[in-house]
């Protein structure tokens, strides 16, 4: 019997060590969940929060247009492009909305793009938007009007594909400045990484869509 007891000693020690590590990890997870020991949460007027609010809204219109293309386009090159835009931007918008929820900040509200400053400092000195009223509900650069969206839904065939590409190219161009600004000035590393990914992806997609548009006899809309 003593020998058997002795043989269990090392195993018991190992199990206790594993349990201890597990409790430490669990405690760390709970600390993060309750905000204990976590980095300072971004404020409502920060670059991080402003980018998450505005870009998620910008993305959702891109998703809307892409879903219309999935319903109406029969072009074998347009449909996979629309699927990629819809799925990628839905995922990214969800991540940004999730951050706002985690930070206990509103999903909307405030002056559009006020977080983009002239000098790269803290938000508060909004960029010159040509005297535009940039309150909540204002269309951000590149976004389509309700009239443009209604007109898109009335088209079919190549005419639809051309107009979809024109609107989506402008949409991507309009969101690029926000993404590039956040990639450089956001405080949270995850926000900077996502913003850089958005900038890179939409730049590449814009090049692809411009080629597709040219092949179908269309010309881009004026850049926003």
What is the number of beta strands?
0
Helix content: 55-70%
Question: Can you count the helices?
Answer: 6
The overall average pLDDT, rounded, is 83
Low-confidence stretches: 1-37, 120-134
N-end to C-end Cα span: 83 Å
Number of domains: 2
Structural class: mainly alpha
What does the main sheet amount to? none
Order of helices and strands: HHHHHH
Q: How would the global form be characterised?
A: elongated
Proportion of strand residues: under 5%
Based on the structure given, which CATH architecture of the largest domain is correct? Up-down Bundle
Q: How is the secondary structure organized here?
A:
Layout: H1 2-33, H2 47-72, H3 78-102, H4 146-154, H5 157-185, H6 189-215
Helix pairs in contact: 2-3, 2-5, 3-6, 4-5, 5-6
What does this structure look like?
It is a single chain. This protein has 224 residues and is mainly alpha-helical. The protein has two domains: 1-38; 42-215, Ferritin. The protein has helices at residues 2-33, 47-72, 78-102, 146-154, 157-185, 189-215.
Summary of the model, kept short:
This protein has 224 residues and is an all-alpha fold. The chain has helices spanning 2-33, 47-72, 78-102, 146-154, 157-185, 189-215.
């Amino acid at each position: 019997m003593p020998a058997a007891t002795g043989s269990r000693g090392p195993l018991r020690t190992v199990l206790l060590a594993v349990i201890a590590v597990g409790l430490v990890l669990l405690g760390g997870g709970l600390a993060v969940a309750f905000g204990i020991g976590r980095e300072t949460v971004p404020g409502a007027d920060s670059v991080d929060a402003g980018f998450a609010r505005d870009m998620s809204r910008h993305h959702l219109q891109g998703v809307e247009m892409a879903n219309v293309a999935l319903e109406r386009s029969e072009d074998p090159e347009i449909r996979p492009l629309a699927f990629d835009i819809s799925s990628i931007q839905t995922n990214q918008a969800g991540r940004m909305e999730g951050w706002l929820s985690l930070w206990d900040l509103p999903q909307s509200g405030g002056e559009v793009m006020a977080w983009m400053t002239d000098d790269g400092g803290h938000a508060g000195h909004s960029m010159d938007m040509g005297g535009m009223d940039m309150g909540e509900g204002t269309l951000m650069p590149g976004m389509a009007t309700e009239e443009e969206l209604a007109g898109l839904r009335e088209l079919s065939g190549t005419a639809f594909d051309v107009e979809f590409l024109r609107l989506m190219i402008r949409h991507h161009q309009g969101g690029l400045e926000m993404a590039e600004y956040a990639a450089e000035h956001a405080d949270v590393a995850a926000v900077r990484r996502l913003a850089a990914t958005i900038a890179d992806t939409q730049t590449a997609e814009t090049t692809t869509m411009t080629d597709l548009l040219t092949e179908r006899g269309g010309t881009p809309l004026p850049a926003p």
